[in-house]
Amino acid sequence: MARGGSLLSSEWAVAIDPARRDGRIVAESSEEERHSRPAPLPAELHPALAEALGRFGVDSLYTHQLEAFEAAAASDLVITSGTASGKSLAFNLPVLNGIAARPKDRALYLYPTKALAQDQARKLAELRPPGLREAIYDGDTPREERPAIRRRSNLILTNPDMLHMGVLPNHKSWGDFLANLEWVVVDEAHTYRGVFGSHVANVLRRLRRLARYYGSEPRFLLASATIANPVELAERLVGTSFEMIDDDGAPRAGREIAMWNPPLLDERTGARRSALSEAADLLAELVTHGVRTICFLKSRRGIELIQRFARENLERRGKPELAKRIAPYRGGYTPQQRREIEARLSSGELLAVVATDALELGIDVGELDAAICVTFPGTVASLRQMWGRAGRRRLGLAVYVAGQDALDQFFCRHPEEFLGRPVEAAILDHGNEQIASRHLVAAAYELPLTPEDEEIFGEGWVERTERLVEAGELRPAGGKLLPRRSEFVANRIALRSASADSVAVIEAASGEMLGLVEAERAFTTIHPGAVYLHLGRSYEVDRLDIEERRAVVSAFDGDWYTRPKKETEIYIERVHEQREVAGVQLNFGEVSVTEQVIAFQRVSVSDQEPIDIVALELPEQNFVTQALWYVLPDKLAAALPTEALLGSLHATEHSQIAVLPLIAMCDRWDIGGLSTNVHFQTGRSTIFIYDGHPGGVGITKRGYEEFERLLADAERLIAECPCEAGCPSCVQSPKCGNLNEPLHKAGALELMGLMRGEL
Hints:
By secondary structure, the protein is α/β, with parallel strands linked by helices. The model is unreliable at 1-8 (pLDDT under 50). The chain has 26 helices and 31 strands. The strands form 7 sheets. It has a 7-stranded mixed β-sheet with strand order 1-11-18-17-14-16-15, with helices on both faces. Helix 25 runs antiparallel to helix 26 (745-758). The chain has 5 domains: 6-32 and 253-419, 3-Layer(aba) Sandwich (Rossmann fold); 38-245, 3-Layer(aba) Sandwich (Rossmann fold), CATH 3.40.50.300; 433-490, Arc Repressor Mutant, subunit A (Orthogonal Bundle); 502-558, no CATH class; 567-605 and 616-758, no CATH class. Helices cover 35% and strands 25% of the residues. Strand 12 and strand 13 form a beta hairpin. It is globular and about 75 Å long.
């Protein structure tokens, strides 16, 4: 147990003791304090840099920082270690040492968010190393300042989006910078997975290509949280060979871990008290005891509700002054709103913050004592990052509050599988046909493509360029390939799963812009009649104008929230792989998905009961993605009662989507599904599970490859649930577009039992 934490630990022990006594805490664990392993500053360090470090209070290193300094001289490097282990200094030292000796050297630092870049820029400015002229270059940088930054700065802090759209297409303005580019640092590399990671891998290849054109071969330094495959991820991201430093010589305080399951309200239906209400009560209790706390939840609406419930709890206790010291934090707030919350948290003015994973990454928010994660965030790696935000220097508390979701309840029944679960491997596919092809057109816009580019873009690039020529995107000219059109193409490629453009949310009374919502999420979150939450206040959407990219909202005090009802259709484009398994024909390939929001349901906040359904008229959304699907032979379909067939298929689909995150590094919100008793192409009962982002990225490929495990886990999930007819802990899904109708738990168990029997 960590020293110096006894007073604090007694405070949060009092706060969680009632849950321990009444059984809501279903499992506990602890992590031991770890002592530091110091190392001397390297002799090769530039004297002026050593002096700057001394002024900053750094007179020695940890062992992994010294190893990184030595290894960076000879190879591309990925550094992986826990939260608050000094990864920033590990990659800063070789870069700053090089710049101190050769001020003409240039370095490029990439961060997944603007806030992280600003946080690092502040720390570099405080350090004041010799010869350094750092600058942030992102979408918020005033245009009139940009030419001077390009000319004089030798360390640029930016994000992949700005590199993709602002730097690479305008490389002629960056010629001197690229010619002297010695270092590229990619921080929080574990975030570059899935669709986003696949895009960034192509952006980094385009950067390497342009640097080579200007005569430089920069060294890449990547920093990552602990994941299962850091070297593989680094090599897929950059396209070069990497060395790894996974030692961690930094000290770590002890941590107490608690798994918390909300109480069962109805054994027959499986209904439990809301995880949001449980988390809000725990948060209010911790704040009352002066425990500085961060509470994480992936849902933007959910974090607003937790903050609201905690505030109301404290006001009922007669502590309104504490209620004001809890703030929500999520994407969609303006930069000014986010900076203000970060500053209030760091200074201690705020006692607690309820945040989406926007605060999971390494922004310095000061000393926190407890971290609550509400529902499983999708990956163990992400959970560890969230927990690591608290208890850095003294004994900390980490709480996982389970939801009704099937995966959460699976973990509560098997806490040993949760607490001992290893971190996952990060998945990305830089060669994804849709993604890689678009970046080849962007690369051709930057410089004509030549046969020498195969070394950068890798296997299959020739065939890809041939298809682009046939499609009229590229044209051959003198042994090179040029874009067919001269228009700027990078702005048509959105790097993140969210689309590049956003819809502004405007308050009708004041005309003030409250926040932004990605265009692709607009139909499900800010459709007319939707309840929109922002900074703890509720608004109702009056109208949504997609062409104008604006939604107008008015203040709202009703006791309900809304969830959309969708219709989905799937067209099979092509089959890549196929096999017979578990008595069904299993396929993996490409599909076209058409989704349309046709209505929304109003649900009571107080008792979670549906109130009514309101019809909507909104346009369809279409995208091509990867999917696995299986076709039931007539004998399997005939074994199920006709009236229960669709409900059995639907429940089977939900349970398999629920456990797919156990196999792939994703969460269920990255996955979609469709089940039908007769699909118009297969002619039989068919279940589809698809990547929820355009192009797909290999999530369902993992499900196809490990289908036997997927089937076994899904069957166990349903079989163990004590409810009678299906509940949120087994076959109901919080994201079901059909509002969980129809579902047949017994039929799903029978179907998967028959399939397992075939195995």
